Amino acid sequence: MYHFFKMLLTKRILEGKQKLIQFNTKLNAKRKIKLIIASRNTPRLTQEEERLAHSFFKTRGYKLNNVHWHMHLKAVSGEFYANYIPEDIYRPLIDPKLNQMTHWPALIDKNLTYNLFSEFNQPKVIVHNINGFYYVNNEIVDEYNAIMACLKHKDSFIIKPTVESGKGKLVQKVTLNTKNKKEEQIRLQKLFVVYKKDFIVQEVVSQSETMKALNPSSLNTLRVASYLRQDGSVHILSTVSRIGNPNSSTDNYSLEGIICGIKENGDFKDVAYTKGKKIQASPSGISFSACSVPNYQSVKKVVKALHIKVPYFRIISWDIGIDIKDDPIFIEYNVYNQSLELHQITNGPMFGEFTDEILRIGKLSNTRQSD
Questions:
Q1: For the whole model, what pTM was predicted?
Q2: In the chain, what are the domains?
């Protein structure tokens, strides 16, 4: 009897915790879109568009509490679709059914991706910091030797957190002055203090000349969303090119970067977006209509091979670069609080032909998560 009540109590506690997380996730998504709409004075939808959006979700068992995401996506892209997926539906209701959040903190640590995806092309590591321990060449070293490893590199490097580092937080490019070794040693000591623990120091990727030409100061990457179906097949849902602005070392859209949709054959779409407005050329003056991702079929092949390594997550947003040899290079992957915004602005409704299938999964009970 004791064990029965203990199991019942544990179940109720876990259910309560899940509902609280769901509530907070939905609230955060609503806050985000309300701030966007207010800051841009976003126009309302027509009555017919509102009716279509509400009807689409109602017939699939969902209650659309507002049309704020539809308003925003239409205002930026100029296109209305009833099947845009609002993030205040995706994040609290669908994401938890597709992605096992209990595995999230460990498996997305950027230090561990070198073990998870060891056979794939990745930026070369100079120093790992894992839970405060420094690693150089897979051996634990003290801080002094970690700093010396950076100084021996004699070039620029990237330093970034390995846990909870979304939206380009604390990702920076560091250029060393090798003529003042003592000063640079002190500088790196201070830098390591700022990052505390759980960070990584990587070589700067020598990127494809085609991608570099779009904006030379940043690593211009692809954000590829993939979906793992119950039958084991992986499908590319959407690909977006992310391009930095002049003098910026990051390509993050939230930091005023540029996003451009990529077609099935790897060609860029004619129009890109930045700061909520449309543009037709990169900061360097290259017309997007004349651009194509080098070796794009290999990008899709690599993403599919990467995804089956981590079946805990059925929808993943991958950041893929193109190196100097025009080969795909894995940068990182995102599974927690994934944003659908970039994809839906550039490529339309996120789930495409799998929309009804994924929405059905979102309605399944936790004990029946299958297609």
A1: 0.89
A2: 2-101 (no CATH), 124-203 (3.30.1490)
